[in-house]
Amino acid sequence: MDLEDTLLMMPGPVPVAPRVLRAMSRPMINHRGKEFSAMFDDCTTMLKEIFQTENDLFTISGSGTASMEAALGCTIDKDDKVVTIENGKFGERFKDIAARYGQVVPVECEWGTSVDLDVVEEKLAEGAKAVTMVHNETSAGIRNPALEVGMLAKKYGALFIMDGVTSIGGDDVKVDEWGVDIAVVGSQKCIAAPPGLSMLSVSERAFEAMNKENLPYYLDLKAYQKSAAKSQTPYTPAVPLFFGLQEALKIVMEEGMDARIKRQATGAAAVRAAMDAIGIEMFPQLNATSAYSSTVSAMKSPEGVDSNDIKNGMMDKGIIIAGGQNRLSGKIFRIGSMGNVAPKDLMMTIQHLELVFRNLNVINEMGAGTEAAAKVFDTL
Amino acid sequence: MDLEDTLLMMPGPVPVAPRVLRAMSRPMINHRGKEFSAMFDDCTTMLKEIFQTENDLFTISGSGTASMEAALGCTIDKDDKVVTIENGKFGERFKDIAARYGQVVPVECEWGTSVDLDVVEEKLAEGAKAVTMVHNETSAGIRNPALEVGMLAKKYGALFIMDGVTSIGGDDVKVDEWGVDIAVVGSQKCIAAPPGLSMLSVSERAFEAMNKENLPYYLDLKAYQKSAAKSQTPYTPAVPLFFGLQEALKIVMEEGMDARIKRQATGAAAVRAAMDAIGIEMFPQLNATSAYSSTVSAMKSPEGVDSNDIKNGMMDKGIIIAGGQNRLSGKIFRIGSMGNVAPKDLMMTIQHLELVFRNLNVINEMGAGTEAAAKVFDTL
Q: Which of B6, B14, B24 to mutate to test the interface with A (most CBs of A within 10 A)?
């Protein structure tokens, strides 16, 4: 099978539009020249619209993890307490990063279950410099209550540091309205740019909290702020990825955020309808303040089936979906509806899932899933 | 002027070969799949040959500065002393990074002058966990004594952390023979890949020295080691830049390191011969253990001429050279011979420099520079 002819239906990296790929093959330019600065400013303007923020916004040459660390590494000193909300792998990552810089106050929920806001409030009431939460927990397909945690953070005077890696650009994220002090996104998810960049918005309050003796160096957000005033990055940027990012952001703007959010949410709804029709259960356990993710759907593997067999069955057909990570390996499978994924891509994915399930003797007949999905797409 | 038709003759980013640019426009792949791992291993094998090392070698999605910080951030704790050798901007950067993690013992030489090894030995004799040096000080066009510092580090039991950002892949760098515990290179310099990646080799001794309580997270070299055992990166890699890196490394292998080193050194020698012929002085002040850089040449601006006028004059002709950085701004200008730069590119650069100098009334007649350079190239 030709690798370049497979369909990436994972929760990132997502397929990148041909015009974005072409943009990356432009000859190099001097990153200290006017042309780079113009591109830098153009990207920042578009990103602020997507983040719905007027805060400072920076692009780091590094993955989403780099920006997660920048957020904590610049604000948290060794005696500072950080409430880390965890209900999946990326919540756990925030906890692990926080542990390198300060004192972790963990709020650990079973992966895939909903966040207990009473416990979060209880911990914040004891005093903390920051609270971290993953808005869209990619590993579990669940959307966590950002508005509510933002309100609690404000009430108790803590910084709200939010991983929006797989929500910003795909879901409705209101950074300023929700009071998110630092919000992080990855390039290779809902924005559908190539992997390798991450972007983060930083509030005035967050900058004021950067009062520790030594900030990290490569991830020094004050250095990013200083350079951004000259429309530059403090260190050599990954120029081709900026070319790609700019083109990907233009596609986002052309579609418009409202349409983009609706399309991605409809994709996830179509997947859920299809799963329901063929008797597959969703993985997340929702409550009043959580929701199924609208950019990645996580499903339980049917009784007696290792989810890696589903993933591998799909791979044989040329469609790349995701299994479970770490403790969820073998137990769940995940399908992305993020980025520029079109209804036809999801229809093909569901069609082949039915085929794989029939081969695994999970279902006898194909068709119910695609029919249910098609009905959802009719609402688009 | 069309930006894509300019010639980059700076000390990085350097022009990237069309086949490297094309490689970056390949569709995305899953970075947890077999194809990425095969590419990862292929790059690592080629890089070890270029570094002349059998140490572990990692590729970080981030600039050379990220790898410089990884080296210090993983090994230096707050009470550890680091001897930082400085005779240019990047030596200063090592000092600045070291100050965020430990106790700096600075060996500060005037930028562009040669390193005083007696002072280095004196400081090392007082006890230090590490010594940092930039092998090829890009900001000053001088090559520093790596073999000698490696011997001193060994004698006094310090780690030798070397910035080879603009020497590895262009100059003869013997990481193992010289006893370099951590050696760093940037993708966009002598290797002629796009900017955005940096690579570093790490000795067993360096790993043993990583005994502090909390390593950085994104730049945690133990995490890189653990993932490399599975031919992966710990966090999402910048996939298109890996596509580009692999293709750029293939070009390096096709040329062969011996030929590559000779070509780049000859390029620098041709620049020096041309400058001598037209009466321009080199910036570095050499001694018995230093040398002119063979990948970037730094020249003093003629009496009464702001070097930015030279740079801007060249830019008007479509040729991008570099001025001086920070305290050297206006005082020096720099021309790269690194990467895949061919004699014809340097001949054109020298020809236009003569034109600019004539326009600035520095010289009356053109031709002496190109003639002198041509003679040097005849030896290739």
A: B24
- Quick one: which H or E segment has residue B257? helix B257-277
Distance, in angstroms, between B243 CA and closest chain A CA?
A: 11
Measured between its terminal Cα atoms, the distance across chain B in Å is 33
In chain B, whose CA is at the least distance from the CA of A197? B238
Residue B212 distance to chain A (closest CA, Å): 11
For residue range B7-59, list pLDDT tens digits in order. Answer: 999 998 999 999 999 999 999 999 999 999 999 999 999 999 999 999 999 99
Query: Which residue's structure tokens are 């992997």?
Result: A195
Task: Give the integer Cα–Cα distance in Å for B205 and B207.
Answer: 5
What ipTM was estimated for this complex?
A: 0.95
For residue B4, pLDDT over 80 is answered with: no
Rounded to whole angstroms, the Cα distance separating A208 from A225 reads 13
Among B201, B225, B253, the domain boundary falls at B253
Using the 3D structure, point to which of A198, A221, A253 is the last residue of a domain: A253
Chain A hits for B69, CB-CB cut-off 8 Å, are: 216-218
Q: Nearest by CB to A63, from B8, B29, B236: name it.
A: B236
Strands (E), chain A: 7-8, 56-61, 81-86, 103-108, 130-134, 136-137, 142-143, 159-163, 182-186, 197-202, 291-292, 296-300, 319-320, 332-336
Considering its fold, how many domains does chain B have in total? 2
Q: What mean pLDDT, rounded, does chain B reach?
A: 97
Is B341 in the same domain as B247? no
Closest chain B C-alpha to A19 CA, distance in angstroms: 9
